[in-house]
Every structure is written in structure tokens, then in C-alpha cells.
């Protein structure tokens, strides 16, 4: 890519990103840290060059292997629910995909760990994260159902893939007071839920309807 073209995209993306943040505000995202984080991460870096012109539309886009980059609203919403107005220390994401949500989380948490089951996708995510020189994300190829016992506990866990039952291992890798945000359900019956680990056990709140790809077992 020539320097001129690169600059062109850079400037356009800054303006269109500011518009995207404005739209998210209108859609009800209130957390200013989340809005600032979304404003800082160039989403077009995470999608195929042919699709980069659509990178700031409020839509999910294909990233290969039947998977998608989540739409900006859901990335913002999940980050807002995870944060709950507080700075995050150690966060785990299940379902890295292209790495966009991880890059946004990296602005909101001290350390981000993200697991993806498809090897080719984790390779691409690694390239995107490196291109943006983000230093506080660790990516892992593996089955997210198992979490990351060696790094736990996490004060936040985000699932980018839907499941009827939150994986047992993940629940137990939450720190006391920690929050897990996930699409619960399957097919067209999915709701965003937040599960908080309390002294007594786990408390779940149900939020809006969502649509995610399924959480699958094993690696590919
Ligand atoms: N976080 C991404 C969204 C990725 S889509 C974004 O920022 O846009 C969900 C991803 O979850 C897919 O890439 C899929 O391969 C992955 N996935 C599904 N089941 C998984 C599992 N058990 N462990 C890890 N990743 C999984």
C-alpha cells in the first residue's frame, strides 16, 4: 500500500470512527471510557482490505471460516457491562476472532488474555495486534471452554460465542466480585447475560437479545 493511500485511509477512518462513536452514544452506550476506547482502535485494520470501506458501519462482517467480527454496538455494550464503571485488571476473552474486541479491551484493562479455537484466525489476530503495537494482550490457540487456569483468577471474562450453559471452568476462574458477560442460549434464542461471582455463589442478570456464533468444543 502506498504512503498516500495509507494516509488517506487513516484520515477517513479517524472521521468515520468519530461518527461511529457518536452513533454508539445515540444507541445508549454511556460509559465514556468505552466510547474513548472504541474511538482509539482502527476497526478497518481487523477486516479484509476489500471490506475495510465498511469497517465503521454498525454491522458484523465476515472474517473467514464462517465467523464474523462483532458489530461495534455489541463490542461496546459487552465492554460496558464488563467494566461496570470500574477499571479492569485482568480480563479473559473467549473467541478472539480477528482480535478487535481484545484490542478494545486492551484500552480498558491492564492485561488481556484471549483464546481462539481456529489456528488461522489466531495467526491473523496476532498480526493485527502487532501492527497496532498493542503490548498488553496475550493470545492463545486453544479451547476456551477450559479457560486459562494458569493465569486465573480474572476480574472479567467475555464470551464472544453463545452457549446455553456457561462453562464450569470459566465460572471458577472468576475472582470474587468478578463479572462474566456472555450470550446465553443457542440459535435465535440468545440473551446477553452478566454473571457476578459473589461470596455466596453466582448471580445472573439477563440483558437484551443478541445473536452470536455458537461456542464449539475443541480446536480446529
Ligand atoms: N471477538 C471477536 C468475535 C469473534 S466471533 C471480535 O472482536 O469481533 C467468535 C469466535 O469464537 C470465532 O472466531 C470462533 O472460532 C470462536 N470460538 C468458538 N468456540 C470457541 C472455543 N471453544 N474456544 C475459543 N474460541 C471459540
How much of the residues is beta strand, in percent?
Answer: 25-35%
What is the general shape? globular
What is the second-level CATH architecture of one domain?
A: 3-Layer(aba) Sandwich
Rounded to the nearest angstrom, the distance between the terminal CA atoms is 32 Å
Mean pLDDT: 94
Helix content: 25-40%
Number of helices: 6
CATH level 3 topology of one domain: Rossmann fold
Radius of gyration: 17 Å
Largest sheet: 7 strands, mixed
**Count of DSSP strands:** 9
Which small-molecule ligands are present, each listed once? Answer: S-adenosyl-L-homocysteine
- CATH homologous superfamily heading of one domain: Vaccinia Virus protein VP39
* Name of the CATH class of one domain: Alpha Beta
The parts where pLDDT drops under 50 for at least 5 residues are: 1-8
Structure description:
With 220 residues, this protein is α/β, with parallel strands linked by helices. The chain has a domain at 60-209: Vaccinia Virus protein VP39 (Rossmann fold, 3-Layer(aba) Sandwich), CATH 3.40.50.150. Helices cover 31% and strands 29% of the residues. It is built from six helices and nine strands; from the N terminus they run ααββαβαβαββαβββ. The chain has helices at residues 3-26, 32-40, 72-83, 100-105, 119-131, 168-171; strands spanning 61-64, 67-69, 88-94, 109-116, 137-141, 154-159, 174-186, 189-197, 202-209. It has a seven-stranded mixed β-sheet with strand order 5-4-3-6-7-8-9. A two-stranded antiparallel ribbon has the order 1-2. α1 (3-26) runs antiparallel to α2 (32-40). The longest helix is centred in the N-terminal third of the chain and has 24 residues, at 3-26. The radius of gyration is 17 Å and the shape is globular. Mean pLDDT is 94; it is low at 1-8. Residues 67-70, 94-98, 100-101, 115-118, 121, 143-145, 160-161, 213, 215-216 line the site of S-adenosyl-L-homocysteine. S-adenosyl-L-homocysteine (SAH) is lined by residues 67-70, 94-98, 100-101, 115-118, 121, 143-145, 160-161, 213, 215-216.
